């Protein structure tokens, strides 16, 4: 949806953080303007006698692909028609990987006709029957009146259809959490996942820390993962009503996996590794309202832009500041986002309608950047962020997912553990293909550039058993009695059919964000390629093409797949 959706549902999110426009959308006049809010004028018919057309409100025409479906009405369909509608819903759910959005009262060409109350009630009842047929639930996101050539009030309704999880195939989105040190990243995640507000002294973040020095300093130095679930009706599922991660997975049809990254500058390499290795769908950039853009905020913003990771912004700690201070921080963010290096369209979210519109536009336009202002202590506007995360659709379509699944298996090794009575366990992300229990793979490269054979004994996703792993999903794989000493971070587990090769010299196209000294031939750099972190030397610079010829350093870690 574009800005016309914003106008339709209350004018909610206006780019640049402008004031929201309330009221009901009026039909566009011949001059193309629309009356959004303000006192009602005299209603005009759909066409004037003088021959001038009165352009009605509209949406973009319905697309054949994607998970958005327009329906004028669904009143008492025949059995044949009902079966056709169910098949159509299955297609939309497949396109949205378990989620679909229905616009009731809208024609296929995008014309907003609306329905009377009785027709709308009958249409929603039919939609509910369709959802039950495919094992899904429906949730009314919002409804608004629309004036279209009628004296009777007419409404359009936007409905979210979410499929009940089947065999643990829930929708999983990974969100990297960025921001300067002490901006409240871990505290916000603690509030979202634990279901309790913070006491103002960091109590909510204690369960997220992995090391003693993190608890003592209050600063994250490693990468941790936290989950937030939503059931098929859009209700939050977290540790407040579930004791374990397994219970959250069983009760959820959509999972948000937060990747909590470090904010301090000395842990910047860890943050870069988290962004490149764990392949987040999007990023949450946290900015403290009382300090504004400070410390590593610009660096984290630059990393997200360079890696082309879509991001939205949360302004935290609004309970500590006056309203004018919060507004000044928002204006500062808007100026940075509009700069030539960013080319983003800031969108301030102030209501539930704003959050729904922001989620849809964020998924469809890479330039839209929603901005939330909230407090982890008072809970102000926290529900708006939950609505946004609940509505946020997958940022990759089903076709891209299918193409990745048809490729040969490639699993990135990010973590290595030894579990009693299980043996060696590796954690990471499946870049391509499908991985099943019992699959025979090869892992490498070793110090001498070889690949070793191994067998996948079992798979777990979000601490729950899983038999099949698909491209783009993160999991842990048990390797039985395979020698842990032969493994290290940065390796890959691939199908033997891939016949993997290694290389020590390669070309890379770079974007120089900032640098303190001269970047020249012979310069030593650290290269991050997926889950590989490797020292290298610049052999040659092609200035016009902005590419470098790099030679691998003396480290034993080799770069995989750069020639493929």
From TrEMBL:
Organism: Suricata suricatta
Protein name: GTP binding protein 2
Annotated keywords: GTP-binding, Nucleotide-binding
Domain of life: Eukaryota
Protein's UniProt keywords contain Cell membrane: no
Ranges of biased composition (kind: Gly residues): 29-39
One Pfam family here: GTP_EFTU
MF terms (GO), sorted A to Z: GTP binding; GTPase activity; translation elongation factor activity
Region named Disordered: 20-64
Compositionally biased intervals (Basic residues): 40-50
Tr-type G domain segment(s): 170-398
Similarity annotation: Belongs to the TRAFAC class translation factor GTPase superfamily. Classic translation factor GTPase family. EF-Tu/EF-1A subfamily.
């Amino acid at each position: 949806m574009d800005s016309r959706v914003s106008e339709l549902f209350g004018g909610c999110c206006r780019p640049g953080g402008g004031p929201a426009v309330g009221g009901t959308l009026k039909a566009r006049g011949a001059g193309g303007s629309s009356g959004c809010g303000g006192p009602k004028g005299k209603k005009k018919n759909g066409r004037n006698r003088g021959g001038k057309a009165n352009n009605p409100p509209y949406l973009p025409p319905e697309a054949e692909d994607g998970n958005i479906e327009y329906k004028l009405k669904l009143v008492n369909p025949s059995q044949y028609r009902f079966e056709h509608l169910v098949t159509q819903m299955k297609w939309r759910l497949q396109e949205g990987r378990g989620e679909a959005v229905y616009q009731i009262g809208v024609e296929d060409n995008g014309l907003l006709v609306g329905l009377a109350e009785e027709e709308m009630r009958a249409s929603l009842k039919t939609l509910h029957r369709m959802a039950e047929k495919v094992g899904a639930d429906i949730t009314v996101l919002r409804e608004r009146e629309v004036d279209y050539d009628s004296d009777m009030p007419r409404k359009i309704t936007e409905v979210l259809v979410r499929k009940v999880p089947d065999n643990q195939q829930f929708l999983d989105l990974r969100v990297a959490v960025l921001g300067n040190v002490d901006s409240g990243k871990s505290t916000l995640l603690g509030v979202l996942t634990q279901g309790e507000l913070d006491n103002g002294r960091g109590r909510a973040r204690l369960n997220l820390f992995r090391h003693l020095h993190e608890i003592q300093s209050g600063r994250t130095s490693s990468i941790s993962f936290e989950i937030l679930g939503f059931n098929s009706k859009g209700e939050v599922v977290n540790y407040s009503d579930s004791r374990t991660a397994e219970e959250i997975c069983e009760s959820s049809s959509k999972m948000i996996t937060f990747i909590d990254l470090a904010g301090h500058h000395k842990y910047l390499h860890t943050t870069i590794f988290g962004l490149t290795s764990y392949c987040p769908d999007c990023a949450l950039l946290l900015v403290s309202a009382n300090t504004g853009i400070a410390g590593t905020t610009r660096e984290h913003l630059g990393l997200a832009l360079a890696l082309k990771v879509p991001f939205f912004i949360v302004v935290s700690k609004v309970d500590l500041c006056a309203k004018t201070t919060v507004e000044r921080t928002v204006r500062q963010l808007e100026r940075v986002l509009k700069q030539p290096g960013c080319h983003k369209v800031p969108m301030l979210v102030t209501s539930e309608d704003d959050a729904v519109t922001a989620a849809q536009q964020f998924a469809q336009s890479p330039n839209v950047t929603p901005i939330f202002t909230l407090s982890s202590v008072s809970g102000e506007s926290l529900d708006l962020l939950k609505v946004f995360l609940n509505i946020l659709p997958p940022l990759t379509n089903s076709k891209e997912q299918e193409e990745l699944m048809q490729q040969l298996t490639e699993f990135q090794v990010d973590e290595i553990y030894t579990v009693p009575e299980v043996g060696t366990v590796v954690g990471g992300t499946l870049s391509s293909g499908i991985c099943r229990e019992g699959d025979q793979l090869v892992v490498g490269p070793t110090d001498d550039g070889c690949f070793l054979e191994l067998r996948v004994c079992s798979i777990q996703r979000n601490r729950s058993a899983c038999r099949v792993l698909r491209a783009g999903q993160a999991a842990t794989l048990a390797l039985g009695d395979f020698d842990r000493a032969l493994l290290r971070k940065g390796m890959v587990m691939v199908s033997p059919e891939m016949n993997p090769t290694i290389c020590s010299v390669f070309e890379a196209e770079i974007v120089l964000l900032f640098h303190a000294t001269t970047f020249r031939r012979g310069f030593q750099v650290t290269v991050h390629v997926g889950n590989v972190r490797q020292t290298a030397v610049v052999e040659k610079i092609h200035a016009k093409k902005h590419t470098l010829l790099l030679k691998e350093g003396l480290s034993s870690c080799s770069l995989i797949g750069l020639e493929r």
